[in-house]
């Protein structure tokens, strides 16, 4: 069976698995690895079909979660950014005994806007899917630019994300389209209500993809979870505010013990 790319760094007692977002790879974490590796044993993963985990076709959320879980340590804190937050959440639902803490970053249990639920308009996601077939590199770059808009360091942050993408082979249009399909269709709001695991949700106040309106709604739906909003961050708070981000993570680790 084809293995996904996996790298372990650091020597902390607690294992921390980091799952990246759509179109990207584990190099997005480079800016926080030095700070976290003294506290955690870090597991850096390229999701199936992304970065160095080539040779995979598009997967459903469940298939992706099962594939990642197959190579994971027996127990760990799982941190997922954006699409990676859905994967980490699905893993917590499939194998709660293997998850000692769940952290979602700029993520939503349901990325699509529907009824009263704020999110990305379905036609925007459909537009990205259409553009992928025409010029997928430009579509990915446009999506990256959306993730940093509004922050003081937007241009620099977008450059850092773009560098992570361009440093490795691009995912295939099929894999990218599969990821957009997950963002468009998955809804874990009800499933996560009863999750009995320490759960931290991190958001950027300026995020244009995950509206901050969902934070209070999820605080009420999921009273067992904690939330934290970085006031000057957008969709990639670990890049724009690495020190604050690492502090929040270390505080959560201490709380979860």
Notes on the structure:
Belongs to the AB hydrolase superfamily. Carboxylesterase BioH family. GO terms for molecular function: pimelyl-[acyl-carrier protein] methyl ester esterase activity. This protein has 257 residues and is an alpha/beta fold. 41% of the residues lie in helices and 16% in strands. It has helices spanning 33-36, 61-69, 83-94, 122-134, 136-148, 154-166, 173-185, 213-221, 237-240, 242-256, and strands at 6-9, 14-19, 40-45, 76-81, 99-105, 199-204, 225-230. A 7-stranded mixed sheet has the order 1-3-2-4-5-6-7. Helix 2 packs across helix 3 (83-94), helix 4 (122-134) runs antiparallel to helix 5 (136-148) and helix 4 runs antiparallel to helix 7 (173-185). The mean pLDDT is 93.
On the 0-100 scale, what is the average pLDDT?
A: 93
- Secondary-structure element string: EEHEHEHEHHHHEHEHH
Rg estimate, integer Å: 17 Å
Q: Give the DSSP E fraction (strand runs of 2 or more residues).
A: 15-25%
* Number of β-strand runs: 7
Please tally the helical runs, counting DSSP H or I stretches of 4 or more residues: 10
Strand order of the largest sheet: 1-3-2-4-5-6-7
Class per helix and strand makeup: alpha/beta
The proportion of residues forming helix, as a percent range, comes to 40-55%
Silhouette: globular
* Major β-sheet profile: 7 strands, mixed
């Amino acid at each position: 069976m084809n293995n996904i790319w996996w790298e372990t760094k650091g020597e902390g007692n607690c294992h921390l698995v980091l799952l990246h977002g759509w179109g990207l790879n584990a190099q997005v974490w480079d800016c926080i690895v030095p700070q976290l590796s003294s506290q955690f044993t870090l597991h850096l993963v390229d999701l199936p079909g992304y970065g160095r985990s080539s040779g995979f076709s598009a997967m459903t959320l469940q298939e992706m979660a099962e594939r990642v879980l197959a190579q994971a340590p027996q127990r760990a804190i799982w941190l997922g950014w954006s699409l990676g937050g859905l994967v980490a959440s699905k893993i917590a639902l499939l194998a709660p005994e293997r998850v000692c803490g769940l952290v979602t970053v700029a993520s939503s249990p349901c990325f699509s806007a529907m009824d009263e639920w704020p999110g990305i308009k379905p036609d925007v996601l459909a537009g990205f899917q259409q553009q992928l077939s025409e010029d997928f590199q430009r579509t990915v770059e446009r999506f990256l630019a959306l993730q940093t808009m509004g922050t003081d360091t937007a241009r620099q942050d977008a450059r850092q994300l773009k560098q992570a993408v361009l440093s490795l082979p691009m995912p295939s249009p099929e894999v990218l389209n599969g990821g957009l399909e997950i963002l468009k269709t998955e809804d874990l709001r009800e499933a996560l209500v009863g999750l009995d695991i320490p759960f931290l949700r991190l958001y950027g106040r300026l995020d244009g993809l995950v509206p901050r309106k969902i934070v209070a709604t999820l605080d009420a739906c999921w009273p067992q979870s904690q939330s934290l909003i970085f006031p000057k961050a957008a969709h990639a708070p670990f890049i724009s505010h690495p020190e604050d981000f690492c502090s929040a993570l270390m505080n959560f680790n201490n709380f979860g013990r």
